[in-house]
Amino acid sequence: MTAGTGTDARTPALVARAEALFPGGVNSPVRAFRAVARTPLLLERGEGPHVWDTDGRRYVDFIGAWGPAILGHGHRAVLEAVTAAAKNGFALGATHPLEIELGEAIRRAMPSLERLRFTSSGTEAVMSALRLARAATGRDLIVKFAGGYHGHADGLLVEAGSGVVTHAIPGSAGVPEATAAQTLVLPYNDSSSLTLAFAADPGRIAAVIVEPVAANIGVVAPAPGFLEHLRETTHADGALLIFDEVITGFRLGPGGAQARFGIKPDLTTLGKIIGGGMPIGAYGGRADLMNLVAPAGPVYQAGTLSGHPLSMAAGIATLAELRPERYLALEASAETLASGLQEAAAAGGRQVAISRVGSLLTVFFRPDLPTDAAEALTSDRAAYARFFGAMLDRGILLPPSQFEAWFVSMAHGPAEIEAALEAAGQAFRV
Ligand code: HOZ
Questions:
Q1: CA quadruple 106, 111, 115, 121: dihedral, nearest 10
Q2: Using an 8 Å Cβ cutoff, are 359 and 333 in contact?
Q3: What share of the chain is helix, strand, coil (3-state, %, to 5)?
Q4: What is the model's pLDDT at position 162?
Q5: Burial classification of residue 412, based on how many CB atoms lie within 10 Å of its CB (0-12 exposed, 13-18 middle, 19 or more buried)
Q6: pTM over 0.90
Q7: What angle do CA 185, 272, 259 make, to 5 degrees?
């Protein structure tokens, strides 16, 4: 690790300039490090499992760009694909063959997306999927789960996870009451509340949207039968089931959570990994539904930069690397990390519960695994903040919030997992 400390440190002045420029000093709230009471890092380079800050310090990175960096940073095949695509210009304003190539690759891996549409972000994808669900069903109400984070579209900020829960923002100012009233919020993993909600409003709910593995209140696995219940109940009422796989898509395997749990949603939203680190989103699903999207149908949705060739190139190159055997190795690395963390915590006399689904992981500073947001919120955030700081000081970068997932990548080898465990052995004692 090289450290540019002392008078040549660039970070303090850059932080001051960012704070004078951007709200809270950042362009997305979770980057502000407020929940862990540390000065935010400015990162300027990433390679493989490492990132470097503006003072030249190197960290083993578990933020993973908040999900996209499943291959690690700056993967050679992705870099070459983007460089080659850039030589042909950037956005050209008409359909590019790379859009077809990436769309077909996604559909091969996730056959429930019979047709799809690219957007520029996951937020846009979700917003568009909800509009489509309302148009298709002629209904207005949407069901989401407390702590579920689906981007920052108005109606979905109600009791949301990620930065909303990290910064204890109760929904968001600026969302009209009438809009929030169209969203019913239920506890995650609570099948009986879903049954009651449909019984209370039969024929009025357009869709249930869910992160099939909740990953924005920390990682919370679906209880056995929960996703099945969502599928059966929505189907019986004529409502749609939307899986938000922006995080889980291509993370839990090529087929995402829907393949892992064997549930076929009506619509799916994607982002992050499918763009290989470039801006992207996508929504797709049943052909009869997607054919309602303009210009095939009356549901309007558009985007100047949708299907951007550099995002398409990065996505194609990324998906080509995601061979099934590599997921097995990834899962094994994540399991080594999770079980090692549990041992390190026990050795440090610290009671934590480690949640892992595939390569998504959270160390909850509470004695047992939470099943929903209310339980996750009882975690000891101050203890997480101390742990975060102690890990950072030892060269390990974790998400700066108790409620964000750690992302293990295919670039994390035994050396990086070992480094993280060695640091944790000390950090759990702080
Ligand atoms: N919300 C995403 C992670 N849960 C990260 C994107 C962001 O908010 O900056």
A1: -40
A2: yes
A3: 40, 15, 40
A4: 84
A5: buried
A6: yes
A7: 70
Return the half-sphere exposure (C-beta side, CA atoms, 13 A cut-off) of residue 316.
Answer: 20
Query: Using alpha carbons only, what angle is made at residue 119 by residues 315 and 215, rounded to the nearest 5 degrees?
Result: 75
162: Cβ below 6 Å to ligand 1? yes
Substitution site in 30, 167, 403 for ligand 1 pocket (most atoms within 8 Å of beta carbon): 30
Sheet with 50-53, edge to edge strand ranges = 43-47, 50-53, 58-61, 396-397
CA 408 – CA 219 distance, rounded (Å) = 13
SS3 per-residue string spanning 246-267: CCCCCCCCCCHHHHHHCCCCCE
Quick one: pLDDT band at residue 170, thresholds 50, 70, 90? low
- pLDDT at position 7 is 58
Residue 272 annotated among the catalytic residues of the structure? yes
What is the Å distance from ligand 1's center to 26 Cα? 12
Q: What is the pLDDT of residue 397?
A: 98
Q: Are 399 and 62 in contact (CB under 8 A)?
A: yes
Would you call 11 helix, strand, or coil by DSSP? helix
First to last CA, the chain: 22
Atom of ligand 1 nearest to the CA of 404: 4
Let me know: does 152 contact 123? Beta carbons within 8 Å. Answer: yes
Domains within the chain, CATH numbers bracketed: 11-62+323-427 (3.90.1150.10), 76-321 (3.40.640.10)
Is residue 28 within 6 Å of ligand 1 at its C-beta?
Answer: yes
CB of 400 sitting under 6 A from ligand 1: no
Q: How would you classify residue 141: left for phi > 0, otherwise alpha for psi between -120 and 50, otherwise beta?
A: beta
Q: Is residue 408 within 8 Å of residue 331, measured between CB atoms?
A: no
User: In this predicted model, what pLDDT tens digit does every residue of 249-299 receive, in sequence order?
Assistant: 999 999 999 999 999 999 999 999 999 999 999 999 999 999 999 999 999
Higher-pLDDT residue of 81 and 171 is: 81
